[in-house]
Each structure stands twice: as C-alpha cells, then as structure tokens.
Design brief:
Elements: E1 2-3, E2 13-14, H1 19-36, H2 43-65, H3 69-76, H4 80-95, H5 107-110
Antiparallel strand pairs: 1-2
Amino acid sequence: MKITFKEFQEEPFEIKTTNRNMRRAINLQLAASKIDDTKGKDLLQISKDTMAFFDTEKAFFVDILGLNNDQAEAFEDLDFGHTMEMLGDLIVKMQNNGQADSVPETKSSAKK
C-alpha cells in the first residue's frame, strides 16, 4: 500500500503490512496508552512514559516509512499535533490493509 507524507518527500511511501510492521503499530499504540493512563503515577513516571512514547513514535515513522537521516531530523521539527494526525492516518490505513477510502483526507495528504 502507499501513503504520501509531503513533509518528507513528494513521492508516496510504500508500506508493507507485514506481521513485523503490524507488531510495531501495536507497540506504538501500547506506548500511547501508557501516557493516557496517569492514575496512580507520579510526575516522574508520567514524564518517562511520555518520553518513551516520543522515542517509539519516531522509531515507528523511521522504520515503517524507511526515513533517511534528513527526513528523520525533519520529523523532529514537525508540530506534535500534526505528527499525531499523520500517525493516526498511517495506523488506520495499515489496519484497513491500505484501502484508500478508509482514511479521510488530512492536511498532510491534501498538500499539493
């Protein structure tokens, strides 16, 4: 399946829905759930969980899209809300086996 993120390159990225990549997606969702669950956690643990999520999120994009060093560095400068939107688009598309009409058009995919 293909997905375009103009923030990194004009051409679409080829994404494979292999077991390895799907496991990466689930691992990322688990990391996200840890930052949502703050009950009984102190500030230090919340901060550690949040940093772990950021690291997992970046690794996910680098691994799934095959970003080069310049693209990975560009990822660091993107708006957090925007990267979360991109992430949602990518995971939904992967979970729906790349069906084009499964993912609504976002600012990211609509840029020309």
